[in-house]
Design a protein that fits this description.
With 166 residues, this protein is an alpha+beta fold. The protein has 2 helices and 8 strands.
């Protein structure tokens, strides 16, 4: 693979998993997600919300659901295209997702045209849909990472040494 920031691509880990940048160093999916079955355009995941991700008594925090959906929706397309970014993510939750109870997420590629990817998923628990997500992904331009790094370098620093948001 070519070197440099724009050569970044999600590659399978030594154990064969497709992991995000935060999970790759640990070679595990930290949000509590594991691939159960993979086919060409859909992947089934087993998920268990860890107890430290509860939002209310016994139910998953919305941030956990967003992280899980961003992960699983990306993995379906990453199996085909390793240079993707999430451009939008929407989630609806008709039922709560409980903590520490096995659930299933089925993610599928709905549409792929050029650089655009539309992917969706739903979480089921004992046959009942508890959360639904849709995302749009885009195949990165060759200079995406370099442009982002240049933009960030131009941002003012906050008093704690990090870049201030603008």
């Amino acid at each position: 693979m070519p070197e440099g920031p724009d050569a970044f691509a999600i590659e399978p880990s030594p154990s064969g998993r497709l992991l995000c940048g935060g999970c790759a160093p640990h070679d595990s999916r930290r949000p509590g997600v594991e691939i159960a079955d993979a086919q060409d355009d859909k992947v089934r995941f087993d998920v268990i919300c860890p107890p430290f991700w509860h939002g209310g008594p016994g139910v998953a925090h919305g941030g956990w659901k967003a992280a899980v959906f961003d992960d699983v929706l990306s993995v379906v397309a990453l199996r085909v295209e390793p240079r993707l970014v999430t451009t939008s993510l929407s989630i609806s939750c008709p039922r709560p997702v409980p903590v520490e109870r096995p659930a299933e997420v089925l993610a599928r590629i709905d549409r792929h045209a050029g650089r655009q990817w539309k992917v969706s998923a739903d979480t089921t628990l004992i046959g009942t849909v508890s959360a639904i997500a849709r995302t749009e992904l885009r195949t990165r331009h060759p200079h995406h990472v370099a442009r982002h790094e240049a933009w960030l370098a131009r941002q003012p620093m906050s008093p704690n040494g990090s870049h201030a948001e603008s």
